[in-house]
Amino acid sequence: MGMQTPNRIKPASDRTAELPLITSLEDLQKFLFEQFGIEESRSFWITPEEICDIVEHYADIIQVQWDVASSLGGLQTTYVTLFNKGKAGSNIEMVGLIPFASESAANQFCYDDQANPDFLFGQLEELWGIEGRFATKFMGRTGNFAQDFMYKKEKNIDAFDLWGKICERRVSLGIVSKDN
User: Is the dihedral of CA 54, 59, 62, 64 positive or negative?
Assistant: First the structure.
């Protein structure tokens, strides 16, 4: 028997309170960079709860993929990737819920030029949502993430199942949510 998924507050924030009419993945990407991006950066940062608001709202145009895989120096990183409904190609990849070996390693990550080429001095701990040894938020980036090999049909999940996956991942990592 799986864990019971806690309820979440909707909308997650003022940023997702009134989502606009969007009919394409390209328009969604523009919205994410305008609403959640940092002008000096080619990245955006978003909470897991905000991601859930977005994927549930736009479930008719996007396909959600979930994965946990090694990256960023062998760390088990969580990936949420949005594709056009049912097909490979253009996508929006977000990485987050990253466990580091220690609090100091999590803080050092925020000042690592390799991991964060769009260095934003003094802001990254908050943007990544560093709590203890975890990055609790997700980062999305501009770039060429349109490779067909990224689309793995077996990793597709229903948009309305994302919150449960996030909660399970938090529990497995030992991340205690402030809100739930």
Answer: positive
